[in-house]
């Protein structure tokens, strides 16, 4: 590399400006004031490069989002071409632009069932906000104005706007220093098989979860409930894959009670599990609304899409001179962002990345399960290129290590030193690498994480934080 991007920056100057002026999402002030940020200046395929020229395999895929990888010239060219041609177009009421219209049609083509209509926004948070407002609008237009309540799950994440952070309820997101909406939002148990009640089979656990939903419907009143919202696999809540038949049965309860099913596919869509969308192809359901973002543009530009059914569209578009869908954003259907999404989808199709994910993702998943033989690994879970490792002090009781050990951060820090980024979340390390991950890179990721877990375990024993003798226990469930 003749002229690395790192040569353009004064590392200390940028670090200081960031430290003094940039409020990061989910800042932990004590550690940020001490350590500041890792300054990334360049991306190349599956790797990112810091200001000192060090390369890291990006096991996070940005933030679950850089699906086609970094440094794609054709992505940059598509963005630049559209910016020169038409950098912005007013989307309100009756004006449109070509990329937004083409993208809406493309999403209708690849989405399941009758999901043929799209509302654009700028993020997963905004797209989920749109989904809820759409559900309210739909029921009101049908004369069911009381259908306003939203049913969600504990340990879910649906965004960080005022509405969506309230709908989500992930451990670590709630703080007494913020206020949350509670008057029309309800949370059910997370479909978390590893932490299901003792003595309960997965099928019994599914029965429990479905019956809990039915009981909540009776409690709130079926005529008061607008929608149930669920991530097919709970992402930031710990890559929780639900029990078999759980989503299908919850979907059937929704259909039986006139409740809209919103599938939050901000993470799972656009190839992460080897399909355009996971709802139907992986879990066998056809939601009323699918929410997407992240992989829609592979993170090259911010864009969200709320994709909804013909039935909803027919319901909201009935004639009426004073009916306005009074919702949307200045940047809805932004032409440059939509051009990026179209090129991104073209790349995924042309390079066969959905099929690639099925092959390399299955291999990656299989190799990660080897870590379950390690002493502090309680559970490896996920699907294909959406995976997670959960750490425990005792495999039999599934007791977590004390919070002050900061186990996932200890392990991720060692990985970082060795050229790998994984995402620490409490007692978990999460992985969502770019879809272009190779077998060799999958091996590097697993082997590096394996070594880091072993070294940290050794240090915990040496420091008296784990017993000196502890047999390896196989097969966390």
SS element count, helices: 15
| Total number of distinct structural domains | 2
Please state roughly what percent of the residues sit in beta strands, choosing from under 5%, 5-15%, 15-25%, 25-35%, 35-45% or over 45%: 15-25%
CATH architecture of the largest domain: 3-Layer(aba) Sandwich
Q: N-to-C terminal Cα separation, in Å?
A: 46 Å
SSE arrangement:
Blueprint: H1 11-21, H2 29-35, E1 40-44, E2 47-50, E3 55-58, H3 61-64, H4 73-85, H5 98-110, E4 115-121, H6 124-141, E5 149-153, H7 162-167, E6 185-188, H8 202-220, E7 225-230, H9 246-256, E8 260-264, H10 278-281, E9 289-292, E10 304-309, H11 310-316, H12 335-350, H13 353-368, E11 377-383, E12 386-391, H14 407-417, E13 420-421, E14 423-425, E15 428-431, H15 439-462
Parallel strand pairs: 3-13, 5-6, 5-7, 7-8, 8-9
Antiparallel strand pairs: 1-2, 2-3, 4-10, 9-10, 11-12, 12-15, 14-15
Helix pairs in contact: 4-12, 5-12, 6-11, 8-9, 13-15, 14-15
Description:
Helix 5 packs across helix 12. It contains 15 helices and 15 strands. The protein is an alpha/beta fold and 477 residues long. A seven-stranded mixed sheet has the order 4-10-9-8-7-5-6, sandwiched between helices. Strands 1-2-3-13 form a four-stranded mixed sheet. It folds into two domains: 74-350, Aspartate Aminotransferase, domain 2 (3-Layer(aba) Sandwich); 352-465, Aspartate Aminotransferase, domain 1 (Alpha-Beta Complex).
Features of this protein?
Aspartate Aminotransferase, domain 1, alpha/beta, disordered C terminus, seven-stranded mixed β-sheet, 2 domains, Aspartate Aminotransferase, domain 2, 477 residues, 15 strands
